[in-house]
Protein 1
Amino acid sequence: MSSEKKRVVITGGGIVSTLGSEWPVILANLKAGKNFTRRMEDWAKYKGMNTQLAAPITDFVPPDFPRKKIRGMGRIALLSLVATENAFKLAGLTDSPEIKEGRCGIAYGSSMASPDPMMDIYSMLILNDMTKMNATTYIKAMPQTCAANIEVFYGLTGRIITTNTACTSSSISIGYAYETIQNGIQDIMVAGGAEELSPVDSAIFDTMFTASTKNDHPELTPVAYDKSRDGLVIGEGAGSLILEEYEHAVKRGAKIYAELIGFGTNTDGNHITQPNRTTQSISIQLALKDAGITPDQIGYINTHGTGTTAGDISESWATYDVFQRPAPVSTLKNYTGHTLGACGVIEAWVTINMMNEGWFHPNINLRDLDPLVAPLDYITGEGRAITTDFVMSNNFAFGGINTSLIFKRAIT
């Protein structure tokens, strides 16, 4: 292993989301300025549950993969597989024998696995009957279902890192994959995360009074940073990035979409669910130090922006504490809802593409800025044309797990 740090670039990316999967479609949906929240009429059956809002993917049809290769996959693993397939195609690696030779690994995570097989497992304890279980039940329910299924499907034989760290599952997977390549352990890494929509996810936040209950006006929520916000909305999706050692990518003639130059992560160490402004700002500072750049060089920040009062206020001030200026910011969650374990990679891939496009999406529905949030430049209206060589994407999770990623404009 070389002591010299390797450069790490992004040579492919793929997402499955309410915004779409191809960049032209995603860009059009971002510019349309409408969210994908809908009222889940069937959720009215859950007694005591106040929210009936979510942002599901309604048109997901997995490709016709061989049944033998996907029989151990629930919806969440299928979402992650399609995202990875798209990423490998973009990177020109789908049929490459190289990914099977030990120099390609995977870092992948989610908050939970598919809920239906977990219910089949629990039914044994509740009903004293295990007839609902079969040979693939656990495979669909295990925490590492996405990572394991992807590596088996493609025959990856490098390192595997599973990152089940709630809302930072995929951003921390990107960071760990970056460090793995930096240190010469792998040449290529698949990094990302996924989340399958379940009413349980919404119910968890409902019990904490942090889920939006604007059930009659789904088009108006979530709305981070607005005085009228009333909580988050759960979404679903998946995303995968192909990280590659720079010289390796150049040698094979790969297109480079961005260079990953900074990663910061730490933990709050004081509360499972309450954000900590101080440690959040330290995570951002760690990424800047790793990147070797100053805060003034960052032209745009994609925020975690969940639409919860505590989260919005803490994150905005943690950001301002570092940047000390009205830096341009926006959150993708106002469009997609909170995709939990998938949000970091989806937001990172969208941010990379926006940097290359020179246009950044607005905070849709933001009309009345909460006076308690920090004085940042909250992009509104039709978005913002910004030319910048450096962008940041931040995510924060239950457990006090903070992440910050910095991408540099694609190398030409």
Note: The first strand starts at residue 8 and ends at 16.
Protein 2
Amino acid sequence: MATGPAAMGRDQVPVSRETRDALVFGDALPGIQAYAQLLRTEGIPRGILGPREADRLWDRHLLNCAVVAPALATGASVADVGSGAGLPGVVLALIRPDLSVRLVEPLLRRAVFLEEAVEQLGLRGVEVVRSRAEDLHGRWTTDVVTARAVAPLTRLAAWCLPLVRPGGTLLALKGQRAQAELTAAAAGLPALGAATWSVQMYGEGLLDVATRVVRIDRSAGASMPSRPADPGGGREAVPPSRRRR
């Protein structure tokens, strides 16, 4: 069973908030704090996050995403589908500057917010792609696709697995129904090229509620998806070439 950074055993005394944040975020903590401030001052007033999220940004959002960072290999390419406010994509990019991250978001106002966040946080190797995941099938694939609170797994797998390179991984951050969703979707996963799948826990011993992740590994021999006919409905209004230097 996977765990988060420097995770503690279940029988150990919980760490203080300061120690926990240092263990999870490390040197990225100032950047995470700047991102939290941006979410409060811009994200919530602009409707990128709900108004009730201000008081639970750290526990419900930032820490929930951050503990998944060890699941990604060094130098991996990542596509965060339905990125919204940048969760988990921006958090992972702040903690792991070795990653190359695409923030995939179809809604213009959210894509604009993500562009501003990338600029203000000085993130490198991060680009914003305004598109639905299914409109990107056949255009490119990536080592890892992440998704959080986007859709039930039965639909999410169909949208995201074609973006995962053969041998790559889909990491779907889920809540308490993670196992139930995986059970419901399992019968259709082999047809999408999935080889193995499981529910993994991250942050046990550090978080009050550990992060549940459905991990689906694509077969190394899976066929690459063909690019669908494009009737002009694909959207990529935010150029993917705008990498930070």
Note: The CA atoms of residues 106 and 131 lie 4 Å apart.
Protein 3
Amino acid sequence: MIMDAINNLVEYFGSEARQLRNVNLFRKALYVYILFTVVQQIPLMQQLYGPQSLIVPYTYDSISAESLLNLLSQPGIAPYYYLFFIVQALCCGLGLFHIFPRLCALLVWYCTINLSNRVYLSNTGGDLLVNILLFYLIFISPQQKKNTGQYDPIINTFDNTFILACKLQVVLVYAVSAIYKYTQPEWLNGSALYYILNMNEFTLPLVKQEVVHFPFLSSICTWIVMVYQSLFPILIFIKGAKRNLIICGILVHVGIAVVMGLFNFSLVMICCYLLFRDIDLSSEI
């Protein structure tokens, strides 16, 4: 039985990845999202990245792996932050049309993580997730292979390993979030969203007014979020439940975007659902 399990694993990871279509659609969605964030940050670039930035940069006394991912914290490089945006946007555009896709994937990740690390105080969970997923995408083939070759088993292993890593990373986001909520009495008794939506930073005036008058609605929404995050890691791998689960997820994240103003985070999570799209095997042949 052990040998059969090992053989099945070898066959799974060594066979041609059938989910490249999903991943490459997700890659394009992520590139479009990054282009959107570039435009979104244009009015705030000076305040976030300029010499008078509101965020104090890290300091590094020697060259290290960490410092290479925080180039914009170096005084001699910091004034040229706009070059990182230019390269990031250019590579996203080229990547959308499969022009130098491998190089573009690497440069998009490298520019994105340096820009993200420079404004570490403003990062959300969505930003951190994007950084991780962009790194995984570097190792996944940009398109289905047209010819066979001697390196196919190695390429297939990288593709299947990092496709699985992308999926597990998204599942982990929901699982960890659900576990955390079960340790918090405010989530268990249904009052968490009531308190969150009474904060001006995480709600709209109209929503805040309705929450005060109808607190039971916030309790229902609190439990819905908990149940969804708890079920996602299991049901997303069950074909019969996947479609309805994703539809519910889209509705949940649209609600989060509209009610709490976490638009970017919700957009990232909705993009991630493309990784779990059902595959039409006939279209992969």
Note: The two ends are 32 Å apart (CA to CA).
